[in-house]
Amino acid sequence: MIRVAGERIADLFALAESESVNRPNSPYPNRYVGLARRIGMRYTVRLPTEYRERYCRQCSSFWVEGRTVRTRLRGGHRVQTCLSCGATRRQRYRGGRPVPSALPTGATARPQPAEVMADIEEEEPSDPLSEDGEE
Ligand SMILES: [Zn+2]
Predict the structure, then answer these.
(1) Cα separations (Å) of 8 from 12, 21, 33, 98, 123?
(2) CA of 79 to the centre of ligand 1 (A)
(3) Cα of 84 to ligand 1 centre, how many Å?
(4) Is residue 127 part of a domain?
(5) Which of 12, 41, 94, 123 has the CA that lies 20 to 30 A from 60?
(6) What residues make up the domain containing 90?
(7) 97 alpha carbon to ligand 1 midpoint, in Å?
């Protein structure tokens, strides 16, 4: 039964996808997402990752980039704002440099300039005239 539930969820998301493409103002994609989520809860099936990023967790509206969701990259996070209810979803994105505020308190992001200068040893200039000359 769990296998059937997974298939049903995949079907519903496929329906939501095609419906949102073919009829931009159709209310059905949101309905399909709601059904898929209910099936997932009923049979304790986790929605696959690719589906979980396609809807609003607040109002179950199907997310279409630029139309029902706005995505911005900010400070190493991907911030998705639902344009139906205004809920936001923040996620770290791969490859992003950790933002200073994300570091544990007290940790320094980089060595202080004074420490860097202390690490550089002064080289003794070699004197080319000190060689023993043939005379
Ligand atoms: Zn929403």
Answers:
(1) 6, 20, 11, 39, 72
(2) 13
(3) 5
(4) no
(5) 94
(6) 2-100
(7) 29
